[in-house]
Amino acid sequence: MSGEKTEQPTQQRLKKARQEGQIGRSPDLGAWVGMLAASVMLPRTLSKAMENAEELIGKVPDTIANPDAAKCLAILKDGLMSAAWAVLPLALTMMAVGIAAAGAQGGIRVATKLFMPKFNRLNPFTGLKRMFGPQAAWELTKSLFKTLVLGGVLYMTMKDIVPQLMTAGRLPLAALLGIVTDATLALIRAAAVAGIVMAAADYFVVRRRTQKQLRMTKEEVKQENKNTEGDPLIKAQIRARQFAMARNRQMADVPTADVVVVNPVHVAVALRYEPQKGAPRVVAKGQGPVAAKIRQLATDNRVPMVQDIALARALNSGCEIGQEIPAEFFGAVARVLAFVMSLKARGSAAGVHRNPNPTPAMT
């Protein structure tokens, strides 16, 4: 059926979808990758924070012994700055990971159209369709699977750490904190890796669903192409006007030609030779009515015409308007120009003349 969306979306359709924020991406992917990066940066951040805290605490006794508002404010300022510098690498890492995750899933774009109110979002039937449709089923499956996986990760981690904690009554506090910290980091990293795997699966499902939603009917593709490339009738009219303008330009150059090489009826090629600019150039050429017009202009402007069937056909098919003639035509054109110069020397160049040394058939 013509109404079925069987065609892949065009580039214009994809661009419009990106502008409207309709991009297949999983928000969980950036969150889980950020958590994994945080678990790597967290030990360094905590270590730096503890060093700064110890340094500040070392200043407290002197301040208590000699109370001074300026010293207290200085300690407070140092504490805030130290905390900021300790947390800054972690914050920058999280921001970079978030940007990279968004860019990897289709680029970073501000979809301003999402801020515009849409009344169809308030449609209760659309809401019910989202609640009980395939998308809702996938979200439910994803939530259950996420719960099971994270529960399994938590169980495996705690299974190893609980026995150690049960027998850690005689351990120093620092060692106990080390065990807890290592276990916590291991839990976070294991959960993050599992989350990344689930988020990757979610990304592919969401992307596939988005691509399916953006599919187009054959009629929509035709209309899109028409809007993008223009109506074929209008394009044909534009090409016709462009051709007419080019033809008028070349006709205006015929009076400046040195010679027009013709076969008796069908072909005419106007040449102009300016030694300081290189080889002779084709200023106009054509067949049929165009050739007749060139011959008429040559007659009106007393431009000599030389009949040379083989050369006229070869120049018409092998040369472009405005370009120098190729090297293989140098000898034949030179003989024609020499013939024309001899006619001008006798004062009888205007009109049509037969080439006394016609060019052999050229391929």
Topology, pairings included?
Blueprint: H1 11-19, H2 27-65, H3 69-104, H4 124-132, H5 134-166, H6 173-213, H7 218-229, H8 232-253, E1 259-262, E2 267-272, E3 281-287, H9 289-300, E4 305-307, H10 309-318, H11 330-346, E5 352-354
Parallel strand pairs: 1-4, 4-5
Antiparallel strand pairs: 1-2, 2-3
3D architecture notes:
This protein is α/β, with parallel strands linked by helices. It has two domains: 23-213, no CATH class; 252-354, name from scop (3-Layer(aba) Sandwich), CATH 3.40.1690. It contains eleven helices and five strands. It has a five-stranded mixed β-sheet with strand order 3-2-1-4-5, sandwiched between helices. A hairpin with a 4-residue loop joins β1 and β2 (267-272). α2 (27-65) runs antiparallel to α6 (173-213). The relative contact order is 0.09.
Compose a concise summary of this entry:
This protein has 363 residues and is α/β, with parallel strands linked by helices. 66% of the residues lie in helices and 6% in strands. The chain has 11 helices and 5 strands; from the N terminus they run H-H-H-H-H-H-H-H-E-E-E-H-E-H-H-E.
